[in-house]
Structures are given as C-alpha cells and as structure tokens.
Amino acid sequence: MRIGNSPFGGMPPVVKNLLIINVLVYLASIVLHSSMGINIEEYLGLHLPMADKFRSWQLITYMFVHAYPDPSHVFFNMFALFMFGRMLESVWGPKRFLFYYLVTGIGAALVHLMTQYIDVMPMLKAITHYMNNSTHENLELFINNNLKISTYAMKENFDAFVAAYNKLANTDPDMAAGLAREYLFGYRADFLNAHVTIGASGAVFGILLAFGMLFPNLRLMLLFPPIPLKAKYFVMMYGVAELFLGIHNFSGDNVAHFAHLGGMLFGFILIKYWQRKGINY
Q1: With contact defined as beta carbons under 8 Å apart, do 193 and 53 qualify?
Q2: How much is the CA Rg of the chain, to the nearest whole Å?
Q3: pLDDT for 217-247, tens place per residue?
Q4: What is the tens place of the pLDDT at every residue in 55-104?
Q5: Helices 257-276 and 201-214 sit at what angle, rounded to 10 degrees?
Q6: CA distances (Å), 222 to each of 2, 215, 234, in order?
Q7: Domains of the chain from N-terminus onward
Q8: What is the pairing mode between strands 219-221 and 196-197?
Q9: CA dihedral 50, 52, 56, 58 (to 10 degrees)
Q10: Which of 21, 68, 225, 255 is most buried, most CB within 10 Å of its CB?
C-alpha cells in the first residue's frame, strides 16, 4: 500500500497520534459509561487539588478526555489540532511540538485551577462559618445564599438531610446541629469533587497562539462571516473574546475560558523564551 492511500498519510507523527489517542479515549468514555456505568472523567479529568479525587497525573490526562455523547467537543478541538498543529510540527519537529503542546496544556490547567480556587473560596468560607457557628439561623442563611446542587446524587443527599433535620430541629436542636455539620462535611467533599475540567482546548489555544506568532500574515478564511483575516488578528480576536467571556462568567456558560487564556499565555512565554535563547524555527 502506498503511504498516500492512508488517511494519515503525510501527517506529522505527533499530531497523528494525538488525534488517535483523543478519539480512542472519547470512544472508551462512551463504552465504559454505557456498559459499566464508569465515568472516565472522574479518574482522568482535572479535579481541584483540595478535592478527594484529585491526582497529579490529571494535569496531563484531562486534555485527552472530552464530553460525551455529543461529539462536538472532541471534533472541534481535533479539527483545530489537525488544521494548525500540522504546520507547527512541520516547522518545529515532533519533539519540540509535543513539548509545546504539553506545556500549554499543563499551563492552561494551572491557570484554570487558580480561577476555580477563587470561585470556590466563598463556598468553603461559608461552610467553615457554619461549622463554627452551628445555629438554625446560620443554616438557613447558608442554604438560601450559598448551597449549590450540581448533581443528582447531591440532590438526593440534600433531600434526605432536610427530612432528617426537620424531625430533630424542634425536639433535639443539638443533634440537629450535629446532623447539619455532618451533612456539610460531606457536601464540601461532593462540591469540590463536582468541579471537573476536561478537554484539549487549553493546548489547542496554545497552538492557535503559536500559529499566529509564526505565520502572522497568513490569511485565514473565516466561516462566520466568510471573510479573509490575517492569522495575527484571528488570534487577537479569540484572545479578547475569551478574556471578555471569562471575566463576565455568563450564567450557563461552562466553558473554561481562563484555561484557554492560560494555554495562550504559557505558549507566548515559551516561544519568547526560545527566541531569547536563539532557537530558530
């Protein structure tokens, strides 16, 4: 068989293998969930360092896991990797391209974890406040102002707690307060474990940044609107959009915008470091 007859013929090796690994992990996610009820993101997705389910390897494995069963998440990430990664690997070579991909992916994770830490701190402080001031009034304030239920299991636990608490609130307030502390201790663990980040987007945005820096005047044809745009302006437009969306944090938006910016930031720093060291492309 001629190499040109292969669907991967002529494709740089790292991009090719990244595409294969991501697609295989996506298919494995579907099979494991449908046949065994295993959610692969619970093990390979990136959790908060304070969460029980956090593991150090997740800083790398999270970028190979994508949301399912909707294939759009993995498709658009892999399409961008295919479109822009090939040229970068051809210029840099496999080793440097793989190093850049992993650095930007890990950098995206670190930036995202910092923003998540800022987001979850009010909840953790509210839980600590109740633990130190276990009154019925403080419990009501916490439930009305802070409680967030993000999974079906958390909803079941909350309903069971409310039923048990209401039975004790008037007859044995001390036991009711103890029950509330026990519930909030478990809720804290569930709340932290519910923050899971997946996807190659951080590394992909690092690739977009590198493409714009290496080929700034190359014209790209946009789909919406269908106009040509230089790569450097394309990257700037994406960066500004991600910053705007990340800062405003619109309701219902579960995209890790600061992870995208983190990938671009670490990519910029790494490229500038290579330039200072006189590493030619």
Answers
A1: yes
A2: 23
A3: 777 766 656 777 777 777 777 666 655 554 5
A4: 999 999 999 999 888 888 898 889 889 988 999 999 999 999 999 999 99
A5: 40
A6: 34, 16, 9
A7: 3-117+195-276 (1.20.1540.10), 122-193 (no CATH)
A8: unpaired
A9: -110
A10: 68
